[in-house]
Write a structure and sequence with these properties.
By secondary structure, this protein is of the alpha+beta class. The protein contains eight helices and 18 strands. Strands 2, 3, 4, 5, 6 and 7 form a six-stranded antiparallel beta sheet that branches. A five-stranded antiparallel beta sheet has the order 13-14-15-1-16, with no helix packed on it. Strands 8, 9, 10, 11 and 12 form a five-stranded antiparallel beta sheet that branches. The radius of gyration is 28 Å and the shape is globular.
Length: 430
C-alpha cells in the first residue's frame, strides 16, 4: 500500500468520525428538545397527583383541565391529542372521587390493625353464626354457618378472578358454579362474603368503574331467575384510590371488618373494625378538610360518637387478645422510602440530615399549596375581569406559574435527597 493510499484511508476515517460526531450532537439536541417538550406536557399533572394524595379531588380536576388547556394551545405538539385523550379519564375519575368525598358515610371505626397480607384474616373475629373465612391463593373462601355452601374467588378467563359457589352433597362438594353477577369482562371479582340471609353478598372488584384497585361492592340474589342484581359500589370511607376488599359483618356482635392497603407498604394491609349502619348515614359537615379526613380515615377517633366507650365491645369480639406481630396503626404522615419501607413519624428517620430535609420539604409543600390556591383565585378573577383587570393580572399569573414550576422541581429534588440519604444510612447500619 502506497503512502497516498494510506493518506486517503486516514482522510476517509476522519470524515466518518466527524460525520458521526455531528449526528450524535443532532440526536442529543433532539432528545433534549423532546425531554423539554415532555416536561411542558406534564406541567400540571404533578400538581394533580399531589392533590389526589391530599384528597383534594376538585383541585386535581382543575389541574388536569389546565394541562389540557395548555396542550390545546400548543399547535406544534403532535403528541398533544394523544396526551389529552389520556387525561380525560383521569378527570372523570377525580370528579367521581370528589362526589364520593362529599357523601362520605358516617361509620364508627373502633379499631385498626396493621397486618401482613399473607395472613390478614387473623384480624377478623367472626362468631360461628357469621360463617368462616379461609385464606387461599389470591382469594378467600367463605363458608356459611350450616357449612353446606361456600363462595370463593378463582382464576378464570386467562388470569382474571371470578366468583364461584359450591353446595355440599352427600358425597362431597358439587361442581363449581359461577355466580351470575353482572361483571366487567376485563376485571377481577374476588373476596366474597355472604350475609346470614343467604341473599346479600359483599365482594371486591377492580372493574365496574372502580376508583382505584379493588373496590367494595354489594349485590343481592334474585331467587326468581337465579341471578344477582346489578352491583352497587360502596362509598367512602370503605373505598379509596387504593385496594379495598374483604368486607365481612358479624351481625351477632354488630361489627364489621374490611381490609385496605391505602398508604401502606406493599406487603401490609390495615384491617378496620367498624359498626355498620342499618341505613347509610352521611357525614354532615361543610368543611371539606373534615370530609376528606373522614374519607381517608385520618383518625379513627374522629369517627367516634361523643363520650362513647368501645372497650367492652372490643373485648367481647376478642380484639383485646395479644396481637403478637401485629402492629397498631399510628402515623403523622406517610412517606415512602422504597418498596419495602414506609415512614409514619419523625422518629422513624435514622439520618438526621434526611429528617431535617424532610421537614423543609413539608414546609415547601405548604408553600406550593398556598401558591396553587392563590393562582386559582387569580385565574378566576382573570376570567371574570374586564380588559384592564386582565392586563393587571396577566403578569402576576405568569410570574406565579414560573415560581410554582420552580417549587415543584425543588420539592421533587428534596424528596429524592431524603430517600437517598436515608437508604444510605440504613445500608450503613445493616
Amino acid at each position: 500500500m502506497t503512502n497516498f493510499e494510506r493518506y486517503k484511508i486516514i482522510r476517509m476515517r476522519y470524515a466518518i468520525f466527524v460525520l458521526f460526531f455531528f449526528i450524535s450532537i443532532l440526536l442529543r439536541a433532539q432528545t433534549l428538545e423532546e425531554a423539554d417538550k415532555l416536561y411542558a406536557d406534564k406541567k400540571y399533572v404533578a400538581a394533580a397527583e399531589m392533590y389526589e394524595q391530599l384528597y383534594r379531588f376538585d383541585n386535581a380536576a382543575e389541574s388536569y383541565l389546565m394541562q389540557i388547556s395548555l396542550l390545546e394551545k400548543d399547535k406544534k405538539n403532535k403528541k398533544a391529542p394523544v396526551i389529552i385523550d389520556s387525561l380525560r379519564p383521569l378527570i372523570k375519575k377525580v370528579e367521581n372521587l370528589a362526589r364520593m368525598v362529599s357523601r362520605c358515610e358516617n361509620i364508627q371505626i373502633i379499631d385498626s390493625i396493621l397486618v401482613d397480607k399473607t395472613h390478614f384474616l387473623s384480624a377478623y373475629h367472626l362468631v360461628e353464626e357469621a360463617g368462616t373465612l379461609e385464606q387461599t391463593t389470591g382469594s378467600v373462601t367463605y363458608e356459611n354457618q350450616l357449612k353446606d355452601r361456600r363462595f370463593f374467588g378463582k382464576k378464570a378467563e386467562k388470569t382474571l378472578f371470578r366468583l364461584y359457589t359450591q353446595v355440599k352433597m352427600q358425597d362431597g362438594w358439587s361442581e363449581e358454579k359461577p355466580l351470575n353477577i353482572p361483571v366487567d369482562s376485563l376485571a377481577d371479582d374476588n373476596y366474597p362474603f355472604v350475609m346470614s340471609d343467604g341473599l346479600t353478598i359483599y365482594y371486591a372488584s377492580n372493574g365496574n368503574e372502580s376508583i382505584g384497585g379493588y373496590d367494595l361492592f354489594i349485590s343481592r340474589y334474585n331467587v326468581d331467575n337465579d341471578t344477582y342484581l346489578a352491583p352497587r359500589q360502596l362509598g367512602m370511607p370503605f373505598n379509596s384510590p387504593y385496594n379495598d376488599y374483604m368486607l365481612a359483618i358479624d351481625e351477632l356482635n354488630g361489627v364489621g371488618y374490611f381490609a385496605t392497603d391505602r398508604f401502606q407498604p406493599e406487603d401490609k394491609v390495615i384491617i378496620y373494625t367498624f359498626i355498620p349502619n342499618e341505613e347509610p348515614v352521611f357525614v354532615e359537615d361543610e368543611n371539606f378538610a373534615v370530609l376528606a379526613g373522614r374519607a381517608k380515615i385520618n383518625s379513627i377517633r374522629d369517627t367516634w360518637r361523643p363520650n362513647a366507650n368501645y372497650q367492652a365491645l372490643l373485648q367481647k369480639i376478642g380484639n383485646d387478645i395479644e396481637k403478637g406481630n401485629q402492629q397498631a396503626v399510628t402515623k403523622d404522615f406517610t412517606f415512602v422510602i422504597n418498596d419495602k419501607i414506609v415512614y409514619y413519624t419523625l422518629a422513624d428517620f435514622e439520618d438526621e440530615g434526611a429528617k431535617q430535609t424532610f421537614l423543609r420539604s413539608r414546609d415547601l409543600k405548604k408553600q406550593i399549596l398556598t401558591l396553587e390556591n392563590q393562582l386559582d383565585a387569580q385565574r378566576r378573577n382573570f376570567a371574570e375581569g374586564d380588559a384592564n383587570r386582565k392586563r393587571t393580572l396577566k403578569l402576576s399569573i405568569l410570574e406565579n406559574e414560573s415560581r410554582l414550576e420552580n417549587l415543584y422541581d425543588t420539592f421533587k429534588k428534596m424528596e429524592i435527597e431524603v430517600r437517598n440519604r436515608e437508604i444510605k444510612e440504613l445500608r450503613t447500619k445493616s
